[in-house]
Amino acid sequence: MKGKLSENDFPSVDNTSCEYQTKNVIVFFLGGTTYQEAWEIAELNKSDPSINIILGGTTIHNSKTFIADCTDIINIES
Question: What burial letters (b/e) apply to 11-32, b meaning 16+ CB within 10 Å?
Fold first, then answer.
């Protein structure tokens, strides 16, 4: 089916079938994360205290650093 990942190539764990539930989740963005994404993670952490989501990235972007990275990509492709 189009738009679905293969379960064989991308296996997942259903928390209801495990002996334990995930308590800590690490989300790491190669290329950087934004303040908005950090805010969203903080909101998720507030909404469900049983799970702790830790956000990381190679940098924290603001509008200037994001535009600079996009410009670098365009220059590399040219």
Answer: eeeeeeeeeeeeeeeeeeeeee
